[in-house]
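A.,

Following up on our hallway conversation. Structure tokens first:
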């Protein structure tokens, strides 16, 4: 990733932010424009920006040549729409999960004077996306497809979040509900569509492609998104908080994590009993017992084996695609996440 592209990308953020806090559809006063600016700066540009930058990378690979300045701006604007969508999900997700940190800083709702105003801020973030799309893409032949794409992916993600939440209902803690198939379903809808398919779909639409012709690409990207989430589940437990930017709480939150699903597969009756008694408890000694069991079951090795096999399977699927440009897009994505540490 060139520093030049990242700095251009961040310039586009400043430009979009300025448009939003001067949106003619609302009379902003100093208090409201300052609030929105602070809220955006805190929640939108703070991550790794992989999803957003991937739109620009993917579009450049599809075109096979350097982009004109206006094309760079539009690809960056679409990338930022994905980052806005991500910020909207995370702000609300952190409230639902009662999380404490995100990206190495306190969650937005934990900031003094923010609290539950964060719910409305999430709604504001969601509403900024159509404002950006309307301002910059309304005259494009693919405008309707773009709006439709963002609506579709948001629906899939919210539905995935719903399955995740109702599977982990407090007071109904039942590990027997957890399996690889339910984990995969949650992951596919909650993460894979917006994190992997959406950036490439945006680039394909900009390039003038019909998304119905790219079902195979969607399938590979959803598979990649599943692998990414398994990595995330692994890092939640085994990653260093100072590296991943948050303190993992999947065990305490009774999450349908790949680790617990694998542990249930590999455990004997006694170990399953230990899991049932300790998983989903806030008590640090219970969390320690679960982690100890994960080590006993050698889940780090099981994950490494999964990672190797997933990578090989994905490479085979990618190389079966007829277009070298599309292969390059997919390989670029895979290269960014393979063996990541955060």
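Then the amino acids I'd put at each of the 342 positions:
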């Amino acid at each position: 990733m060139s520093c030049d592209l990242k700095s251009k990308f961040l310039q586009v953020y400043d430009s979009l932010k300025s448009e939003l806090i001067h949106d003619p559809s609302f009379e902003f006063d100093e208090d409201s424009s300052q609030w929105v600016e602070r809220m955006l700066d805190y929640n939108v540009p703070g991550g790794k920006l992989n999803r957003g930058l991937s739109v620009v990378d993917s579009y450049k690979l599809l075109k096979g040549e350097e982009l004109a300045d206006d094309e760079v701006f539009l690809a960056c604007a679409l990338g930022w729409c994905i980052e806005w969508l991500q910020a909207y999900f995370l702000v609300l997700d952190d409230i639902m999960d009662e999380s404490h940190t995100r990206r190495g800083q306190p969650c937005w709702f934990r900031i003094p004077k923010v609290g539950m105003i964060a719910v409305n801020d999430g709604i504001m973030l969601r509403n900024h996306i159509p404002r950006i799309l309307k301002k910059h893409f309304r005259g494009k032949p693919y405008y309707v497809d773009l709006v439709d794409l963002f609506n579709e992916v948001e629906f899939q993600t919210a539905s995935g979040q719903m399955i995740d939440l109702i599977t982990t209902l407090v007071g109904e803690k039942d590990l027997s509900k957890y399996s690889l198939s339910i984990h995969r379903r949650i992951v596919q809808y909650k993460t894979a569509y917006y994190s992997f398919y959406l950036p490439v779909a945006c680039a394909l639409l900009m390039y003038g492609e019909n998304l119905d012709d790219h079902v195979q690409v969607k399938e590979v990207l959803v598979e990649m998104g599943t692998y990414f989430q398994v990595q995330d589940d692994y890092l939640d437990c085994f990653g260093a908080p100072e590296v991943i930017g948050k303190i993992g709480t999947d065990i305490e939150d009774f999450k349908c994590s790949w680790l617990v699903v694998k542990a249930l597969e590999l455990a004997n009756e006694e170990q399953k009993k230990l899991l049932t008694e300790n998983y989903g408890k806030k008590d640090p000694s219970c969390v320690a017992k679960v982690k100890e069991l994960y080590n006993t079951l050698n889940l780090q090795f099981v994950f490494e084996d999964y990672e190797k096999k997933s990578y090989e399977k994905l490479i085979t699927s990618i190389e079966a695609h007829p277009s070298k440009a599309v292969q390059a897009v997919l390989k670029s994505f895979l290269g960014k996440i393979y063996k990541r540490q955060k």
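The mean pLDDT is 93. Curious whether your intuition agrees with the design.

B.
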